[in-house]
Design brief:
This protein is of the alpha+beta class. It contains 7 helices and 8 strands. The protein has helices at residues 11-15, 19-27, 43-49, 59-66, 86-94, 107-111, 130-140; strands spanning 2-9, 32-39, 76-84, 113-114, 120-121, 124-126, 153-157, 165-169. The chain has a 4-stranded antiparallel beta sheet with strand order 2-3-1-6, with helices on both faces. The structure holds 2'-deoxyadenosine-5'-diphosphate and magnesium ion. 2'-deoxyadenosine-5'-diphosphate binds at residues 53, 58, 62, 97, 118, 120, 122, 125, 128.
């Protein structure tokens, strides 16, 4: 079954110049990249992305981390991978959440660390279920930025420029 999954190369991955290595590792999956961009991470985007963790004691540091405040890199690389069993394949390559416990050959096991302040710097984000992937891809990308039709969209007419129609997620 074809699935889509959101991958983020987090600010520590960018600062350590790991983009090429990570994309090479992900290419082992033979999945297709159907969206890719560099993105600034606003506070609102960060908090929406990690909404399931808002009660955790590490939430504020996690938001600072994904926004780039710990690495002086105020951006992430966001990609959508698409194909057979994409979520499982990418999660397996990424390794488990705690980078010190992740398989040493996985991306997080190879390049991640836990800081003395307790932040899991685990280099990449990978959606962990189809529902999560759908929510996250709709949060990070507009329909026209993804080159396959993943989810239903609607057309809206711009207020300023009536001839122009924009596609947004339904
Ligand atoms: P994952 O990123 O593997 O999907 P998650 O969704 O549970 O894991 O958590 C999101 C991020 O939050 C994770 O990549 C790193 C951070 N995190 C999770 N548990 C943590 C913990 N116990 N201490 C510090 N950071 C944690
Ligand atoms: Mg998660």
């Amino acid at each position: 079954m074809n699935q889509a999954t959101l991958i983020l190369i987090k600010p520590d991955g960018l600062k350590k110049s790991l983009t090429g290595n990570i994309l090479t590792r992900l290419s082992e999956t033979k999945l297709e990249i159907v969206a890719a961009k560099m993105a600034r991470v606003s506070e609102s985007l960060a908090k929406k992305h990690y909404q399931h963790l808002k009660e955790k004691p590490f939430f504020n540091e996690l938001i600072r981390y994904i926004r780039g405040e710990l690495h002086d890199r105020y951006k992430v690389m966001a990609l959508v991978y698409w194909g057979e069993n994409a979520i499982h394949k990418c999660r397996e390559l990424a390794g488990t959440t705690n980078p010190e416990e992740a398989e040493s050959t996985s991306i997080r096991g190879s390049y991640g660390r836990i800081t003395t302040a307790g932040v899991y710097e685990n280099v990449v984000h990978v959606s962990s279920s189809e529902d999560e992937a759908k929510r996250e891809i709709k949060l990070w990308f507009k329909p026209d930025e993804v080159i396959v039709d993943l989810y239903p969209v609607k057309e809206i007419t711009e207020k300023e420029y009536k001839e122009h129609k924009e596609r947004v997620w339904l």
